Amino acid sequence: MKIDILSIFPEYFSPLDLSLIGRARSAGLLRVDVHDLRRWTHDVHRTVDDTPYGGGPGMVMRPEPWGEALDSLVSDDSVLVVPSPAGEPFTQAVAGELARASHMVFACGRYEGIDQRVIDHFSGREISLGDYVLFGGEVAVLAIVEAVARLIPGVLGNADSLVEESHTDGLLEAPVYTKPASWRAHEVPEILRSGDHGRIARWRRDRSLERTARRRPDLLDPDALSPRDLAALTE
Ligand code: ADE
Which helix (H) or strand (E) holds 85? Predict the structure, then answer.
């Protein structure tokens, strides 16, 4: 997958050199290019913003630099993502959709956002990281790139990690433990040390259901649950 990121703060993206994303880039599974939007300005001050039509606080990003930048980066195969608190919620399902794209372009807005005509002209998909407001789209892009990149075949060493994790099956993941078996008088649940894979799988499923019901009841879909699941929830 090829990713182009446009921002007035390209330095924000140095974490993409690290860890598994950095390794995926070195392995040629992922190519990421970060571009400074100001490259497409033509005045001495390299202006990217102006006051909003209709009045109101803050500044809005002007369409011209965005138009020129996106003309040079977006093609018919590209998916343009514009992070915005007014966008559709980012979920694991959206990450899965985006992971199928061959080319993604991210347009990071700052201030009050990007002139809407840019987003409409280039058919941008506005995506929100959550119901809170960040200074700009950069942190949202880091999160979206990480969630998408790990779904690209070959990026995660162990593809099994994708199978049982939180949100893949619509539930929160069960708690996890490692050695030592006893730590500060807290014991690892006995069943996980039993070697009985059937009972362990059932225990994990029950803990997933219990956690989801307690922390994220909005995620529980009774129609997707087996009679055994429903019984575990009402115990
Ligand atoms: N830009 C500012 N706030 C944001 C949010 N919550 N999600 C995505 N982009 C944003």
Answer: strand 78-89
